[in-house]
Amino acid sequence: MSAPLLSVEDLRVSFPTPAGRVEVVRGLSFDLGRERLGIVGESGSGKSMTGRAILRLVRAPGQVTAKRMEFEGIEIQSLSERRMHDLRGARISMIMQDPKFSLNPVMTVGRQIAEALQAHERPGRRATRARVLEMLDAVRINEPERVAKMYPHEISGGMGQRVMIAMMLIPRPSLLIADEPTSALDVSVQAQVLDLIDELVRDHGMGLILISHDLNLVSRYCDRIMVMNAGRVVESCAAADLHRAQHPYTRGLLAAVPRMHETRGTLPVLDRSDWSGT
Amino acid sequence: MQMLRRDWYLDDAPASRLQANAGRFYRAGGLLLRNPLAVVGGAIILLLVLTAALAPWIAPYSAVGQDLSARLLPPSAQHWMGTDELGRDILSRVIYGARITLMIVALVAVISAPLGLIIGAVSGYFGGWVDKVLMGVTDVFLSMPKLILALAFVAALGPGIENAIIAIAITAWPAYARIARAETLTFCQSDFIGATRLLGASHGRIILRHVLPLCTSSMIVRVTLDMAGIILTAAGLGFLGLGAQPPLPEWGAMISRGRVFILDQWWVATMPGFAIILVSLGFCFLGDGLRDVLDPKQGGKS
Amino acid sequence: MSAISLQGLDISYGSAKVVEGVSFDVAEGESFALVGESGSGKSTVLKAIAGLAPGWTGEISVLGQPRGHRPGRGFARRCQMVFQDPYGSLHPRKTVDTVLSEPLQVHGLGSRDARVEEMLRAVGLDRRFRFRYPHQLSGGQRQRVAIARALMLEPKVMLLDEPTSALDVSVQAEILNLLKRLRAEQGLTYLMVTHNLPVVGFMCDRMAVMNRGRVVEIAPATALHDGSFADPYSRALYAASGGTAHD
């Protein structure tokens, strides 16, 4: 394997509370190549904070420390805010949960995508337009010309999320962080959006970090899975081996999901005393 | 004895209603005490209340006793703030004036805040024509300058401190009604109101028990911030001779009388002016602090 | 007598019709699901039954009594609702105790202390939680309180609006188990709105699939085992939810 795209060692994120600083991410380490990594956990597990910490989007009073956090060999922590700004979007992109809150309501879809591109490079007007339409086509929007002229409130949630993906991918980043990219969408649209992300990531040879609460979904779209609980990775395995997971937390999570062929009278409930020694 | 312990207030699992409420106030109080401006504001207001309560004991002279041989004396060891044109001790008058100021502030708040709250909450909760009528009336009041409106009322009712209070209260409620309506609109569609309606609760009960408690915190903040304006309006009315009548030591009226001597005997108008500024500032500081504590979303967190 | 009966229900918001010609019956003691995607009108049907969406025409009756367009005191004793968002359905300034006592106060019922304690035990909340405020509770605990509030008046019919979709899977399992147990213990009828088909498989006996304001199919929950749906939309929804026919 070549040098990793992203290498994180001993990442810690902490927030002050009246009872002292509380760590929400406690010593996370991983290497990411050009592969698809899934981070799974329940709310409060620190999975979203991990994604934000990589992009240095954790706001004060939150505090991020790490022994090492290298992206393509560059130490992220020591970059100036300006350099970081150039890196975000251009080299690392992030797709957030709900497109409704991430799109500017008073700007057409086409202009927003064009702006995302122009923030990082300066192609001519013609070239920009061509790239925007090409990108809209790539995220399988049927009439790119028409959609480019629409405002965010005129398009559906699934289309909004595809527009977001277009915005994030148009500068051709080498790492995409998707934080619950489909949890605001209907099931029938979820699969389309995830398939699309999957295809684009493979085609461009990008790295992907998929953050989700849904174990099954992550196992379907990722190569490797890290299960987080209370700020720590409790289990790390290949996606294909998920059903052979060892840790009681992972097993508990898997068992707690109702199945389509449900015959159980009661669902097994996590016994949290099993592993949380602290 | 238990009530004096910190853990009792901060208990995560309170054992009674009393403890739960006490805990909530304890936490809010703690936040307030950590805000330096609020502490300064609170101290000024406390000073005002103490001064008003203890006026007969701390004032060195009578507030109305005249001594024509000691007219217009500058500040000195005997008269810390000097004397006015009738030889009355200004410090004593300012101290007694605190009572009048406090009374105006308290009465205006007691009349206008609940009035505004109820009108606004009813308007926002029911919507439709109720909302249109009530907000129409509110807009009529809001569209006129406060002092002019108060002047018109006092002119109609006759000068005097009581009428000044009524006039100020009448001009103050529309702003509160607007705020209460806006707040009500934001959560009258929320699930907890829907759930309460489903329990069979009457509209009156929902407004009184569920809607109003949510409006009150922003109302307290707003009223506190408005106190400064109320004091100034009262002083303005007093200055124009339409508020407190002589010989009542109202601060605005005192400035008005000192105006004649402002070039030669500056202290006559300046000393009550300082009192007005200090108390207004106190309320503003306290209001800002309360806002940070009561609704952290709006607070000026930078 | 059916617990809930809808006949030709149309619901409009202003001029837009969001639900059209919905008819179904839920038998007493049954657990019935309304499934569909966002915008299918499933939650609106629930709100209309509860009296929180007044713009409807058609016939709704609950336990044999026709429904008016607003919530009412008599209706409150027969039918209650649990909302989707546990963070929005509890008053932020009221303790658990106040929330649970309120229905008793509204209906002038006595021995409040004992009833509140008993209900807390029934929904699996420790007595310690009784005087807490919602912000001191987790999402799952809040939903338990909301369920307890709905059960305080001992209704026979419960309307459940996506009761677990805002919760983590491990907490979802706890709440689903709770709802299932309460139904068995108290002989409740459930009408549950959800987009999650496996949850239907666990909780319900029958389901109505809704699409664009219409019921396209009413099927037994066992259809989830083999994907034996008649309507193409139901089949598409089943496939998208990860169901594979005939395996």
Structure description:
The complex is a heterotrimer of chains A (278), B (302) and C (247). Chain A has 278 residues and is of the alpha/beta class. Chain A has helices at residues 47-54, 81-90, 99-102, 109-118, 125-138, 144-148, 157-169, 187-204, 215-221, 248-256; strands spanning 6-17, 20-32, 36-40, 63-65, 68-71, 74-75, 92-95, 175-179, 207-212, 224-229, 232-238. In chain A, the strands form two sheets. A six-stranded mixed beta sheet of chain A has the order 7-8-9-3-10-11, with helices on both faces. In chain A, strands 1, 2, 4, 5 and 6 form a five-stranded antiparallel beta sheet that branches. Chain A is globular, with a radius of gyration of 20 Å. The model of chain A has no long low-confidence stretch (mean pLDDT 85). Chain B is an all-alpha fold. Chain B is built from twelve helices and no strands. Chain C has a single domain (2-240), classed as P-loop containing nucleotide triphosphate hydrolases (Rossmann fold, 3-Layer(aba) Sandwich). A six-stranded mixed beta sheet of chain C has the order 6-7-8-3-9-10, sandwiched between helices. In chain C, helix 5 (139-151) packs parallel to helix 6. Chain C is globular and about 50 Å long. Chains in contact: A-C, B-C. Chains A and C meet through helix 8 and helix 10 of A and helix 6, helix 7 and helix 9 of C.
What's a concise summary of this model?
Chain C: It comes from Limimaricola litoreus. Chain A has 278 residues and is of the alpha/beta class. Helices cover 35% and strands 24% of the residues of chain A.
Please supply descriptive tags for the structure shown above:
heterotrimer; A: alpha/beta; Rossmann fold; 6-stranded mixed beta sheet; 5-stranded antiparallel beta sheet; 10 helices; globular; C: 247 residues; alpha/beta; 4-stranded antiparallel beta sheet; 10 strands
Strand order of the largest sheet of chain C: 6-7-8-3-9-10
Count of folded domains of chain B = 1
Order of helices and strands of chain C: EEEHEEHEHHHEHEHEEHH
* Helix-strand category of chain B: mainly alpha
InterPro entries (chain A): AAA+_ATPase (IPR003593), ABC_Ni/Peptide_Import (IPR050388), ABC_transporter-like_ATP-bd (IPR003439), P-loop_NTPase (IPR027417)
Keywords (chain A): ATP-binding, Cell membrane, Membrane, Nucleotide-binding, Transport
GO molecular function, one term (chain A): ATP binding
Subcellular location (chain A): Cell inner membrane
